[in-house]
Structures are given as structure tokens and as C-alpha cells.
């Protein structure tokens, strides 16, 4: 959509353009953030993506080039955020999210969760905008209860390899609630469970890209430990539908968004081999320290708040779509 037309050499901004909702998406060039950006643009919003591209890529939003409703600012969100004009909603989605990132760049992970959340909240407050924090099931650590309800406080090792992410997100949740209680900001907290789909990085080290990459190249699938640890997988489009519903709810406490599709990692490896019709074998590797043994969301609150949200894409279909995306990447050598 064009913002308006030229009259007597001047751009007259059309009323419909001016009246659009305007969102800021930090991390909007990343995996989840770019899918959220797609959704907001589809809903007729204007979107300002702020991303420092440490793990994101402009390739993820390149299909919107020429769309005046999207603007991109390359910036680290831990620095002061200045933006002209009104903002209706700040979605703080910036953060590396893969366990290998926690080891590769522990301090940026801590900073974006802590300082970045503070800056994003400050921007929302200055603009009188609503705010959403992308949090994580990692706040539950290696949970001693399953499934995990939002009321569970977690079992986190603050000084382990995942501590930088888990504690940064826990701090981010505390900061978000403080802005809500103290400044009256209208905030949301989403706790994502394992989400997958196109635009994940082939080399991001998480189980979905690793296994698909390995299966598509007939390399052995690397199962860490004995593969009995569980994860519940949600396809990104479904998860973003949940985010949209949460944004439109008036609910301020954390809400789990994820599926009940829980599998052991070993089962998951076999599903990936089957879906991709791969010749790959399974190879066992040493278990990772502090690797959560089980992870599945309790969706009681989710169902009450998100108006009966239900995932539509089953695991095999979602994996096929993701495999197609990765195949294109592998073939083009990216
Ligand atoms: N995993 C694995 N092989 C891999 C990558 C991951 O067995 O090549 C396991 C990992 O140990 C964990 C699960 O898969 O138990 C999910 O890992 P991921 O890195 O996707 O994220 P997490 O859910 O642990 O945050």
C-alpha cells in the first residue's frame, strides 16, 4: 500500500495509511519475529523492525521490499531506542534462542534479555504503547512437574550453560511485570515452547534444523544422551496465531504458547527420518549439561485467554514444509 499520493509536488499521506496501527518488532528479522512481522502486515499494520542481525537476516523480510508499511532499523536493542511518530505496540522478540548461542555469545544473550527489555519497555512507555515480551519455557528450567503450568516457578541452574538465557528471560519477565504494576503499562508475556518452521537457521544447532539438515544430506542424526528427553513441537504459523490472539487479549500474566505434541528426542529423530525418506542412521552423542528432561505446556490458561486457540498444522506436515525450505537453502549453498 502506498502511504499517499503526490499533489502539487508534495506527498499527501492518506488517512487510511495514517490511521493504521503501528508496531515495533525487535528481532523482526529473526525466525519468530519475521513471521510475526508477516502477520502484522497482513492485518494491515505498519511495522518497524529493529534488529542487529546477529542471528537474524534481512533475507527473512526481503519479500516485503517495496512495501512502505515496513521499515527496518539495524540497531542493537540494548542501545537507546529513538523512534519518531506514534507506536501502538512494541513486541520485544529480539534474542538469540539456541543453546549453542548461549555458549557462543553468553553476554549478548544476557544483555538483550536484561538491557534490551528495559529499552523496549522504555520505548513502549514513552509512546504509551502496549508491550509484549517473548519469553520462553526455559524459565521453567529442567522442570520437576509436567506439563508445566504458568504458576510453576521452575527449576533453573543460574550458573549453568543455559543460565544466561533462562535468567535473562526471568529477569525480563520481572521487569515487564514491574512496568505493568508500577507504570500501568498494558503488557503481555508469552512463554514459547519449541517452535519450528521455515527461516530457522540451518546451522543454529537446535534439534529441528540439525536433524532436518542431517536427514536431507543422509548424515547421521546426532541424538544427545539416550534421547529419552522430551520436547513438544509447534509450527510457527500456529504459534504466531496464538501471539496475535494474546496481543488482542487484555491479559497481563504469562501465557504458555505451544502444543501437546510431545515426543522423546529419539522418537522425533525417527519421525524426521521417515518424513524425509532419508537413509540416515542415528548416532548417540554425550548428553548436554542441564538439558531439560521433559517439556510440555499446560494449556489451561492458554485456552481460557486465547479463545480456543488450536494448532492446525500437524508435526509431519510442518516438518515437510520446513524440509522444503531447508532443501532450497542446501541446494543454493546458503
Ligand atoms: N538435540 C539432540 N541433537 C541435536 C540437537 C538437539 O539430541 O543435534 C536435543 C537436545 O539435547 C534437547 C532437544 O534436542 O534435548 C531440543 O534441543 P534444542 O537445541 O532444539 O532446544 P531446547 O529445547 O533444548 O532449548
Low-confidence stretches: none
Rg from alpha-carbon coordinates: 20 Å
Enter the CATH topology name. Answer: Rossmann fold
How many structural domains are formed by the residues? 1
Terminal Cα span:
31 Å
Bound molecules: uridine-5'-diphosphate
What is the top-level CATH class? Alpha Beta
Q: Walk across the major sheet and give the strand order.
A: 5-4-3-6-7-8-13
Structural class category: alpha/beta
Rounded mean pLDDT is 95
Q: Sketch the major β-sheet.
A: 7 strands, parallel
Strand content: 15-25%
Helix content: 25-40%
Shape: globular
- The helix tally amounts to 10
Query: Could you state the order of secondary-structure elements as H and E?
Result: EEHEHEEEHHEHEEHEEEHEEHEHH
Mind telling me which CATH architecture this is?
Answer: 3-Layer(aba) Sandwich
CATH superfamily: NAD(P)-binding Rossmann-like Domain
Q: How many strands in all?
A: 15
Amino acid at each position: 500500500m502506498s502511504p499517499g499520493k503526490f499533489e502539487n509536488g508534495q506527498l499527501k499521506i492518506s488517512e487510511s495509511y495514517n490511521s493504521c496501527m503501528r508496531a515495533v518488532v525487535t528481532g523482526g528479522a529473526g525466525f519468530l519475529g519475521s513471521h510475526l512481522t508477516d502477520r502484522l502486515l497482513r492485518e494491515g499494520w505498519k511495522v518497524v523492525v529493529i534488529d542487529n542481525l546477529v542471528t537474524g537476516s534481512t533475507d527473512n523480510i526481503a519479500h516485503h521490499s517495496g512495501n512502505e508499511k515496513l521499515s527496518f532499523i539495524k540497531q542493537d536493542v540494548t542501545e537507546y531506542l529513538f523512534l519518531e511518530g506514534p507506536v501502538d505496540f512494541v513486541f520485544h522478540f529480539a534474542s538469540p534462542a539456541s543453546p549453542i548461542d548461549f555458549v557462543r555469545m553468553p553476554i549478548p544473550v544476557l544483555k538483550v534479555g536484561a538491557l534490551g527489555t528495559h529499552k523496549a519497555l522504555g520505548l513502549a512507555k514513552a509512546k504509551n504503547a502496549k508491550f509484549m515480551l517473548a519469553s520462553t519455557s526455559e524459565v521453567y528450567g529442567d522442570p520437576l512437574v509436567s506439563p508445566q503450568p504458568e504458576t510453576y516457578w521452575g527449576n533453573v541452574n543460574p550458573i549453568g550453560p543455559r543460565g544466561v538465557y533462562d535468567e535473562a528471560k526471568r529477569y525480563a519477565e520481572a521487569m515487564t511485570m514491574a512496568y505493568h504494576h508500577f507504570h500501568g503499562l498494558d503488557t503481555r508475556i508469552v512463554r514459547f515452547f519449541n517452535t519450528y518452521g521455515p527461516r530457522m537457521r540451518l546451522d543454529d544447532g537446535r534439534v529441528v534444523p540439525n536433524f532436518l539438515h542431517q536427514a536431507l544430506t543422509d548424515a547421521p542424526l546426532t541424538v544427545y544422551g539416550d534421547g529419552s528427553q522430551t520436547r513438544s513441537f509447534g509450527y510457527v504459523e500456529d504459534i504466531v496465531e496464538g501471539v496475535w490472539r494474546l496481543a488482542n487479549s487484555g491479559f497481563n500474566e504469562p501465557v504458555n504458547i505451544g502444543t501437546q505434541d510431545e515426543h522423546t528426542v529419539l522418537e522425533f529423530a525417527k519421525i524426521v527420518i521417515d518424513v524425509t525418506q532419508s537413509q540416515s542412521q542415528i548416532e548417540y552423542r554425550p548428553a548436554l549439561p542441564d538439558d531439560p528432561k521433559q517439556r510440555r505446556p499446560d494449556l489451561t490458561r492458554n485456552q481460557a485467554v486465547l479463545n480456543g486457540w488450536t494448532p492446525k498444522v500437524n508435526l509431519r506436515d510442518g516438518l515437510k514444509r520446513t524440509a522444503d525450505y531447508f532443501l532450497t537453502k542446501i541446494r543454493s549453498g546458503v
